[in-house]
Amino acid sequence: MKKEFKDFEMETPSLTLEPDLGAVEEKEEIAEVKQPEKEPEAPALTPAEQKMVEEFAAKIDIENTNQILQYGAGTQKKMADFSDTALENVKMQDLGEIGELITNVVGELKDFEAKEESGFFGFFKKQSSKIENMKNKYAKAEGNIEKITDSLQQHQVRLLKDSAMLDKMYEQNLNYFKELTMYILAGKKKLEETRNGKLAELKNKAVLSGLPEDAQAARDLDEKCNRFEKKLHDLELTRTIAMQTAPQIRLIQNNDTVMVEKIQTTIVNTIPLWKSQMVLALGIAHSTEAAQAQRQVTDFTNELLKKNAETLHLASVETAKESQRGIVDIETLKKTNQELIQTLDDVMKIQQEGREKRQAAEADMRRMENELKTKLLEIRR
After folding, report:
1. N or C: which terminal CB in the chain sees fewer CB atoms within 10 Å?
2. How far is CA 265 from the centre of its chain?
3. Using one digit for the tens of pLDDT, what is the confidence trace for 52-86?
């Protein structure tokens, strides 16, 4: 907190007819506030304070205009200063920032997730990448949370100081409330004594004498009594404000306490629990990785065995078929035999034709030989 309540030294109630108001600017009269139906209960006074009220009431001079104008003004000024300081304190209370910091912690924790990838051949690489990604996210989240934790601790210290300061404010406000009550009690006592005493005497004197000056004296004192009564009413309004300020201080103090508890819970419970869960998450990730790796290897082995069995079956069937097959197929033998028979037939046919041609050639050759012999014989003749 930038502004401490340095002027809030604990004081005991004191009454004075000559308050030191300092350089206070006169303010316009505030519109009359509706008076509460029930007058606030006055705090119990000690015998010493009760005696102080009795003695102070005897000193009040209602006919002294300046004294009446300043009656209780010192306490009213202290109340005004007190209200200004309390208002400044409320303005500097930024509980929303603390709530935002706690929300950021939750956001960091919720953002801690890793996406899984599918496939077998890239399994080991992907699993390793997944765990590294988790570690990187953990390191990043941890760094951010440490910064947020430092800020939360600073807010916690400030809120604790504020709470102690608010205790002092509460006690000081209670002191102002009691002081105003003493002013009011003393004033009412003096007002009652004046109206029942001197004012009544002046009124009786004016009635008996019938003199204008006696009547005017009675009216003047009556007007001063009325103004003093109005002054007491203003003090009662101020006392009501002081009475309302007390629960407001406690409300602010309670808000500070709630935020301190939330900060404490976040620092000592939430964050350590998250770190423990992170350790467990990494351990589970490693176990899951090993289990998935084993499952992938087993599935791959089974798949390989199935494929090998199918291949072996096909190979065995083909081998059996080939083993039962002859060296030469019967169809091949039939075809070869047909071709051979055809070849023999063709060869025999060709041989027959050759034989016939040779026989014809021999006949032609004999015929030509005979013709040649005949011709030669003719020439010799």
Report:
1. C
2. 14
3. 988 988 888 888 888 888 888 888 788 778 767 76
